[in-house]
What we know:
Low-confidence stretches: 241-246
Mean pLDDT: 90
Shape: elongated
Largest sheet: 6 strands, antiparallel
Structural class: alpha+beta
Number of helices: 9
Order of helices and strands: EEEEEEEEHHEEHHHHHHH
Amino acid sequence: MLFxxxxxxxxxxxxxxxxxxxxxxxxxxxxxxVNVADAHWLLPPTRALWLPAGVAHRTGAVGKTELxxxxxxxxxxxxxxxxxxxxxxxxxxxxxxxxxADQLIDDAARQRAEAVVFDLLxxxxxxxxxxxxxxxxxxxAVARALLAxxxxxxxxxxxxxAVGASxxxxxxxxxxxxxxxxxxxxTQARLRAALPYLAEGMPLEAIARRVGYRTPSxxxxxxxxxxxxxxxxxxxxDTRPTDRSL
Length: 246
């Protein structure tokens, strides 16, 4: 394994890139963000993201973040996940990752610690939140308005009068260009907007209100349907993953 560490200011992003090695993206402090195509993950210190070699991605920071880049040679790595996987960072794994960041460890000690790290990679079975953007300028204007203000309750008919397109045209554009119905797209946008608040530990009632839900129960139900776990478990340190298959 190779290790890199750097501090990122809030809102900083690396351009889209790939690595020849597998990468574990983890934030020792703060909240890291990773985009792969249309999928989006936020990673407080209780979560990391495994990225297989060759996967194009962008990495950034929500707030001031101490980012760790941990790289593994595919030829020597026992983990063979074919796509990105969120993993749980329990206290033991966290301590090992911090230990391996020390460049003075001798090779034998490093190899023993690395073997334990691989054994401790527990996938969290969640569906990443994807919010693809349409390319048509009218639909894109609607999408940008909702990303800026997820509490906006306007229907497609209401947006249509503002962007110069009929409700039917906008519905067709979202289905064709985003590969999902507008209602589904709005839900995904709201759930993605909720992730930073969840990472901060904000109460569910406040999160629901900030992202456009009238009640916490409506927000929880939407989150569970889309992601696979309730919002209270998404970043919880004691989540027990249901799928450990490699």
